[in-house]
Amino acid sequence: MKIATFNVNSLRARLGIVIDWLDKNEPDVLCVQETKVQDKDFPGEAFAGLGYNFVYRGQKSYNGVAVFAKGEIEDVVFGLDDEPYDEARLVRAKIGGVWVVNSYVPQGFEVGSEKYEYKLEWLGRLREYFEKHFKQSDKVVWVGDFNVAMEDIDVYDPDGLRGHVCFNEQVQEALRAVMDWGFVDVFREHCKDGEQYSFWDYRMRGGLSRNRGWRLDYIMATKSLAQSSKGCYIDKRPRMLVKPSDHTPVVAEFDI
DNA sequence: ATGGTCGGCAACCGA
Hints:
Blueprint: E1 2-7, H1 15-25, E2 29-33, H2 45-49, E3 53-57, E4 65-69, E5 74-78, E6 90-95, E7 98-104, H3 114-133, E8 140-145, H4 158-161, H5 169-179, E9 183-185, H6 186-190, E10 217-222, H7 223-226, E11 229-234, E12 250-254
Parallel strand pairs: 1-2, 7-8
Antiparallel strand pairs: 1-12, 2-4, 3-4, 5-6, 6-7, 8-10, 9-10, 11-12
Helix pairs in contact: 3-5
The structure holds one DNA strand.
């Protein structure tokens, strides 16, 4: 099973890129974030034409998640377990015997702000979510834009960026607490190198050419599932296109 | 170099 995650920064603006990527890479599952489209305007026809099933939940202007799969998508539930549910940031579904959880973790604005506190609380609630709905022995793959870089090698300038809303000990501990429920960082299992990023800020001049990036997009798997992973890679090809997202896809293959 | 660029959507917000 090949599964991918991609923050598309508007599905409609990036529709051609996403369709082309799906057509060429043929993942069994693609999870996307920041679709930025209301459900009534979701561009589903293009994906149906490729033979993909899909579920989605969006809102006006911001957020939005979707899951595309070759197989049946079952037991779909959007959002966390209590208010605010944030249905446009989280979805779980069962696909081919694997539980897929697609999340768009709040970015947090700046340390000390209400949005930052919300981000920390959100990660805390996500830990409870996994405790409630799954067992560590289940095959669970948790993917998405986590808006946290875990280690120094996951950002281009750790000393300059330390304290950033996506790179400080507090958010790292919050994400670590979720991971400690029972997840393995599949990319890191296969690649110990630095300078392996999935996000480059549009505002950073020459950010991509100088590789001034962050690894914010993850594929996590429960231990039994991670043991079956054959590989994991970041696909930078979409960043070479005319209208790239600021993120790029991360892909993992499992021998199941 | 205390900046910069996107997308959505109609003035700024979010990233």
